[in-house]
């Protein structure tokens, strides 16, 4: 069984939408496959509307240890140069390129700090 959140992730829809359209708190892989292969009208519509638009989910990946997390992207996020878990030290990632100014942004996902060299 997979959770509604995981199902939403794999269908590339929001959790709210999954809930609204009656996807149970836990569904089977077979049910998910069925949704993917024969999407109901609301799902087909959602996918059609989304073509070329911003992703519903982004995969965050730590550049130090490789920890990954799928999250809903926030509008205010800039382009990250690096992402690290908040428990790594800044020395674990390369220094900024010559002439670039480094800034840090915390509160990305559950445990990430974004490093932005600009
Ligand atoms: Zn890490």
Mind explaining what this structure looks like?
13% of the residues are buried. The radius of gyration is 18 Å and the shape is elongated. It has two domains: 2-50, no CATH class; 58-117, no CATH class. The termini are far apart. It has 118 residues and is α+β, with helices and mostly antiparallel strands. The chain has a three-stranded antiparallel sheet with strand order 5-7-6, with no helix packed on it. Strands 1-2 form a two-stranded antiparallel ribbon. The chain is built from four helices and seven strands. The mean pLDDT is 90. The structure holds zinc ion. Zinc ion is lined by residues 62, 64-65, 67, 84-85, 88.
Topology:
Blueprint: E1 2-3, H1 4-11, H2 15-20, E2 26-27, H3 29-37, H4 41-50, E3 58-61, E4 68-71, E5 82-85, E6 102-108, E7 112-117
Antiparallel strand pairs: 1-2, 3-4, 5-7, 6-7
The chain binds zinc ion (ZN).
The site of zinc ion (ZN) has 7 residues, from strand 5.
**What portion of residues is helical?**
25-40%
Q: What's the β-strand tally?
A: 7
Share in β-strands: 15-25%
Lateral strand order in the biggest sheet: 5-7-6
Largest sheet: 3 strands, antiparallel
Order of helices and strands: EHHEHHEEEEE
Measure the end-to-end span.
44 Å
Inertia-based shape: elongated
Rg measurement, Å: 18 Å
Q: Which class of secondary structure composition applies to the elements?
A: alpha+beta
What average pLDDT do the residues reach?
Answer: 90
Listed once per kind, the bound small molecules are: zinc ion
Report the uncertain regions: none
Separate helix tally? 4
| Total discrete domains | 2
